[in-house]
Design goal:
Elements (H helix, E strand, L loop, with lengths): L5 E5 L3 H7 L12 H14 L3 E8 L7 H18 L4 E6 L18 E3 L5 E8 L1 H5 L9 H7 L10 E5 L17 E5 L8 H12 L8
C-alpha cells in the first residue's frame, strides 16, 4: 500500500463533542490530547515521515476566554507529550503575539528528541496571512515562495485528514496543501478510532496522484 510521506491532521469537533456529552464547550479540548498521541504512534508505525497537527489559529483566539485558555493549555500539554517521543519537533505560529504560549517558544526551532526520526509539526497561533506575508511581488518560482513563507521548514503535504465532518481547509498551510488529497471523517476528534486512520490510508492508496502532471 502506498503510504503518504506527509499527513496533515485537522482535529475538529472538540466543542461539538463536549456539548453532545452535556459538557461546556471548553471541556472538549483536553479530550483531544490522547487521540493526538495515538495518531502520532500510528503514523510512525505506518512509515509516515512527517505529520502536522492543526493546534489553533489566530482566528480561534477570538473565541471566549475560557475556550481560548482551554485550547491553549491543550496544545501545550500535547506538545509536551510529543516532546517525550523519538521525533523531530517543531511548533509554527506567530510567536510574537501575546496569544502564543511562552512555554512553546523553545520548540519554534526544530528539535531532535531522543533518536529523532519522524518530523512532527504543531501549528499554534497560526494564520495563513501571517505565514505568507513575506512573499515578494517579484517572486517568480515555487522555490522562492517556499523560501519566503514562515512555515518553510514544513514540506508539501500528501494527505490531509479532517475529523468532525467539515469540508474545508480553514487556512491550513495553503502553500504546502496545494496538491494534498483531502479525507473527511464524520466523527468528532475526541472519538478518534484507529480505523479512522487506516480508512484514510486505504482511501489515499486508491487515489491517482499526478501533482498536476
Amino acid at each position: 500500500m502506498r503510504v503518504p510521506s506527509h499527513i496533515g491532521i485537522i482535529p475538529d469537533g472538540n466543542r461539538r463533542w463536549a456539548e453532545d456529552q452535556g459538557m461546556t464547550k471548553d471541556k472538549g479540548y483536553n479530550l483531544g490530547i490522547d487521540p493526538g498521541l495515538e495518531a502520532f504512534r500510528l503514523c510512525k508505525q505506518a512509515g509516515v515521515k512527517e505529520v502536522t497537527y492543526y493546534g489553533f489559529t489566530t482566528d480561534n483566539t477570538k473565541r471566549p476566554a475560557i475556550q481560548r485558555q482551554a485550547f491553549t493549555q491543550a496544545c501545550i500539554d500535547a506538545v509536551n507529550l510529543l516532546a517525550a517521543q523519538d521525533a523531530e519537533l517543531l511548533v509554527v505560529g506567530n510567536s510574537e503575539s501575546s496569544m502564543f504560549p511562552k512555554e512553546l517558544i523553545p520548540y519554534t526551532t526544530r528539535k531532535k528528541i531522543g533518536k529523532g526520526g519522524i518530523r512532527v509539526n504543531f501549528l499554534v497561533n497560526y494564520g495563513w496571512e501571517w505565514d505568507i506575508q513575506d512573499i515578494s511581488n517579484q517572486t517568480r518560482n515555487r522555490k522562492q515562495i517556499n523560501e519566503q513563507i514562515k512555515s518553510s521548514d514544513i514540506s508539501r503535504i500528501d494527505l490531509i485528514i479532517r475529523w468532525g465532518g467539515r469540508r474545508r481547509l480553514s487556512g491550513f498551510l495553503p502553500i504546502q496543501s496545494v496538491y494534498a488529497d483531502f479525507y473527511v471523517i464524520e466523527d468528532y476528534w475526541p472519538s478518534f478510532k484507529e480505523e479512522h486512520f487506516y480508512d484514510a490510508l486505504n482511501w489515499y492508496a486508491q487515489q491517482d496522484i499526478t501533482l498536476g502532471g
